[in-house]
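User: Fold both of these, please.

Assistant: Here is the first one.
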Amino acid sequence: MRIMCILAAYIVDLFFGDPAWIPHPVRGIGWLINKLEEPFRNIVKNERLAGAFFACTIISLIWFVTFAVTHAAYLFNNYLGAVVSIVIIYTSLSIKDLGVESLAVFNALREEDLNKARASLSKIVGRDTANLDEREIVRATVETVAENIVDGIISPLFYAFLGGAPLAMAYKAVNTLDSMVGYKNKRYIDFGRLAAKIDDAANYIPARMGVIFLVLASWISGYNPLGAWNIAIRDGGKNPSPNSGLPEAAIAGALGVRLGGVNYYNATALRKQYIGDDMNPLDKSHITDAVKIAYVTSGLFIITAVVLLWLICKGKFL
């Protein structure tokens, strides 16, 4: 049953994405994080300890609530339980939205409207976009597509296969915590430390599995699989994150481009090491190339996971 629910959720996301008018659980998780941060800071004066209790509470609470909702639905009716699980897992995925938002940047560049491209880009990246030229807009888009292949596709699917809807949603809590409190600035360097470490640990295996699927997807899509593998091995550890550099390096190698460089966050420069070789100058077409690889990667991953679990269960679906 679990496999069928995950397959259905994957297909629903491919067709519908995340319509803005539908309440999204991740927004609810973000609201909860905002509401509970100050109480935890006030109750526990040691910031590192407060942040540790805070992160563990949020993740545990999201898992428990999701488990309770899905379990109650299954107790009432198996079909209702399946529908609830499908909807929850579907909301943990970002397959179609990753393509839609990235292609919005591509279309704006194709129209030669840099302001529109910057505005579209600002919806999917955290860096400052107001002064980026076309090359930097392309770089930022390709980098975020590569990173989100793990965060928005492989990791939530991985945890859905391991523990169904509750674990998939717990992963989204981990990911949301990292994006909100996992910064190395004065406010969060101690408070968000454990949240960032948990996110690193949660993505460790999926990121490395992702390299294998990205190499295969590059080959199937007509790009450079050997380059994807070689650059992932050579440059995957250059990013400050132990995980996001791997898919970025694989994409860079597949496309023969160079990523990395200087990014600005709230007008503060952050220099990242270069990833990949500058064989092909970055061009807007690389956005569509990266999206194509992302879609193929997601398909390969879910097919492989289904087959493996089917074999493990001796032909009996979970």
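And the second sequence with its predicted structure:
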Amino acid sequence: MSFPERLKAARLALGLTQEQLGDELHVTKSTISAWENGRDSPGFRLLPKLKAVLGVSLDHLICGDQVEGASELKSKYDAQVRNDAEAQLLKGYRRLSVKRRQGLLAMID
């Protein structure tokens, strides 16, 4: 799977449209389309924001590699989704802007 395919898969997994992802990154829908079709790629400055919005590692997104030690992180944080309700919550959380995520976490704590 190539970068454009991984990008599109990550976007679709969150239920985001190209326009919604573009809004989060402050780029146009056509820019996202160009990335997903391999006509262009995001600049270096957008990668941290792309990682935060999509909730995926840059290693996976760019290289397709699994991060070394990922299984240890998974068990440490018990990141397994147990039911549909948890999956919906996770998708909703990942669609939030970084600032809103921080606010939600502060409210939960």
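The chain is about 65% helix and 0% strand.
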